[in-house]
Amino acid sequence: MFYRPADGHGLPHSPFSAIVSPRPIGWISTRSATGDNLAPYSFFNAVGYHPPQVMFAGDLRDSMQNALDSGVFAVNVVEAASLQQMNATSARFPRGTDEFTKAGVAKAECSAIDCPRVADAPATLECRVIRMVELLGDERMVLGEVVGIHLRDDCLVDGRFDVTRYQPAARLGYSDYTFVRELVSLRRP
User: Fold this and answer.
1) Which stretches make up the Flavin reductase like domain (predicted)?
2) Which of 45, 56, 70, 98 is the most buried (most CB within 10 A)?
């Protein structure tokens, strides 16, 4: 099968997000004058290493607007144990609704920025907004520099951050998710 996205695919559901998978989930937390916000973004990833930089993309909703207005956001890593809470925060609540409270997610303050974070997340990246990029359609991408990192102590093993300790959730296509439960190590030639 071949199709041009502009012409449609003729399938019951778009295969695009199933093709580009698995995708890490950025559980983005922000603060505004009307309250704290927490929402998942499956169009999230690291984009730079020196200094560390990340991005998240989507339509201009509360999380993105709050990040642009405040200049900061936090990326909380989603573990298998918090999948249901993460999903609950994807609901479209009225602006000013605290998704931490609605989903029963424990909240803590960030250390380097004025922003909430998921208290028991395996890792949190505290970020300063670098810029917003307008994409095609109504989509936008926010780029951020990581200025602080929280690591949960039980995820550190022999000086390494061990993802098998918490099994990160990843987004597949449709309504599907997967978890990292095993590793394969390969050294570059």
Assistant:
1) 20-163
2) 56
Tens of pLDDT, residue by residue over 78-121, are 999 999 999 999 999 988 899 999 999 999 999 999 999 999 99
Taking the CB of residue 104, how many other CB atoms lie within 10 A of it?
Answer: 9
Beta sheet of 23-24, edge-to-edge order? 23-24, 169-171, 177-179
Buried b (16+ CB within 10 A) or exposed e, 47-82: eeeeeebbbbbbeeebbbbbbbebebbbbbbbbeeb
- Residue-wise burial string across 115-152, b where 16 or more C-beta atoms lie within 10 A, e elsewhere: bbbbeebbbbbbbbbbebeeeeeeebbbbbebbbebeb
Question: How many secondary structure helices (H) and strands (E) does the chain include?
Answer: 4, 14
Cβ atoms of 135 and 64 closer than 8 Å:
no
Apex CA 37: angle with CA 142 and CA 44, to 5°? 35
- Domain boundaries defined on the chain: 14-179
Give the global pTM.
0.95
Question: In CATH terms, is domain 14-179 a member of 3.40.920.10?
Answer: no
Tell me the C-alpha distance between 26 and 74, whole Å.
Answer: 9
Rounded to whole angstroms, the Cα distance separating 124 from 73 reads 10
